[in-house]
Structure formats: structure tokens, C-alpha cells
Amino acid sequence: MVQELRWGILGAAQFAREHMGPAIHAARGNRLVALATSAEVNAARFAAFCPGLDVFLDYDAMLAWDAIDAVYIPLPNTLHVDWTKKALRAGKHVLTEKPIAMKASEFDELIALRDETGLLAAEAYMIVHHPQWIRVKELIEAGEIGALRHVDTAFSYDNSADTGNIRNKAETGGGGIRDIGVYTYSSVRFATSAEPVDLTARVKIENGVDTWAQVVGEMDGPTGRFTYSAMTSMRLPNRQEVVFQGETGTITVSAPFNAGVFGVAAIHVRDIAGNIRTEQWPRANQYVLQVENFALSVATGADYPCPLEFSRGTQEMIDRVFSAAVEIG
């Protein structure tokens, strides 16, 4: 049994430097020990919060190193599947950024390889580890707002000026649906255990990637059938919100995706009489919680909160959105 999970990061992405690297460094029972990067200058930014890192200028060399147990992969989307496989075959547990795959069918080999090696492989979908979303799921299942009838989701930001960003490039698997649709779709799947039964989608395309998308449809699950609407955009000001509307009230989720960055994580429960109850989690760090849960699953065999099977379901929904998408001007 691993007493302390020793991590290496495969690629010096900005997100790894600003969020996941510090989270691994801070998480109990975990230690960040290595970084693989194509340019040594990138390592200095990681050493600022985690001095003493071993730096590799070759990705395969880090995977072959016996002094790490797990790998975090924040590479461009199109590289996720191949490097996840390489990490598993090298005997490492692996946490890969979302979307871990470009199509749902690519999950099958990942799941088979995970089972064959007995290692933990997962998509880095952090919000399911946050008490905010765990509480939303509990309230919906308990019937706090009655039978669920409609869910609205929205997530937008503007990166139009950053033309070199991988999210603005088709060749790296960019686009808003893959980058943030994974939140507006999967958060609802997590909270309701429902799956889409009917979807329509309208998208705006620039240089081969979707910069705006509106998805409308119905979902069905243990809470019954409800209508669903999701808007994602990489060309609008920052916005993120989810509203669950039931027969006897609503749950509004504030800062649902970038808790602590966009704003304070909170939920606002409004009953049929208009009374509002607010619950907040100002100190919870979902990235740290994600790493700690990952290490716990490795150490004890406990079920991981976001297994590949759940992530496959989200990718199936993304695939359906692309299949249904109609381009508009």
C-alpha cells in the first residue's frame, strides 16, 4: 500500500502551474516530486511553490522513473488518450485533464487498460469532489424542491484576444463544448443521475472550433423527466450559473465551476413561498479535495467519485451535441 502518493506532472501547462500543481503540493498524503517539460525554463515557475522538483526534458523518461507513483496530465486534448495509455503501461496511476478523450469510443480501451493494470485512471473533473455539488445532489435526491422540471446552465468567458490559445485551435481539440460544455452537461448528470433523451444544438464556429453553443432538450433519470438548457461561449464575458427548478422551489448554484476563483461557492434554495436559504463553502478547494480522494482510492481501493464510466457518459453527451449541432451565423 502506498503511504504517500508521489506525483509527476506531464507538461508545464498554465493550469497545472496555477491550480493543480499547488493542489498536489498542498494535499494531505500526496507529494509533488517531478515535472516533465519541453523547456527547462518552465520549471522555475513550479519551483516557486514546490522547490526541489526533479525536472525531466523527456516525457517518457519521467514515466520510466521509479520514484513517482502517479501522473497528472494537462496536455492538449488531442494528446490525452495516448499519454494516459503510456502512463498506465509504465505502471503509474493517472489523472488526466478533461476531456480525457475526444470521442466516447476511446474510453473503452482506457477502461480495459485500467482494469488490466489494476491502476487508477480518471478524468480530472474536480467539481464532484466539492461539498457544494455533493450538497446539491443530496437536496435533489431528498426532494427538497419537489419533482425536478427544468435545469438552466451557463458558462462563458472571452478568450478572443488569445489567438494562440489551444482552445481556439481545432488541431488541439479546442472549442467551448469540449472545454466548458463538460461542466454544463456533466454537472447536471452528476446532480440528477439523469441522461439526455433528446437534444438539439445551435453553434457558432470560428476557425474550426465552436465559440458559442446552445443546447436544448430533455433528460430522464431517477428524478423523472425534465427539460434542459445549456449555453457555453468563449466570446462572452465571464458568467457561470446553474439553476434547478422543481415543482416546489429552486436551487441556484453560484460559482458552480470555478469555486473560489469566479466567486464564493454557494447554493440558494428558494421554496414555494419565496423564502431563501443560502449555504456557502468559502474555504473548500476542489482541486485539493480531488487529489486527496484520488490518493485515498489508490491507498484503500475505495470507489473514486468520478470513474471513467461516468466520464464516458459525459463524452457520449458531448458526441450527441456535436452530432445534433446546426451552425448559425
Task: Explain what you see.
- The chain has 329 residues and is an alpha/beta fold.
- It folds into 2 domains: 120 residues, NAD(P)-binding Rossmann-like Domain (Rossmann fold, 3-Layer(aba) Sandwich), CATH 3.40.50.720; 158 residues, Dihydrodipicolinate Reductase, domain 2 (2-Layer Sandwich), CATH 3.30.360.10.
- It is built from 9 helices and 15 strands.
- The strands form 2 sheets. The protein has a 9-stranded mixed β-sheet with strand order 14-13-12-11-7-10-9-8-15, covered by helices on one side. It has a 6-stranded parallel β-sheet with strand order 3-2-1-4-5-6, sandwiched between helices.
- Strand 2, helix 2 and strand 3 form a beta-alpha-beta unit.
- The longest helix has 17 residues.
- The protein starts with a strand and ends with a strand.
- The mean pLDDT is 97.
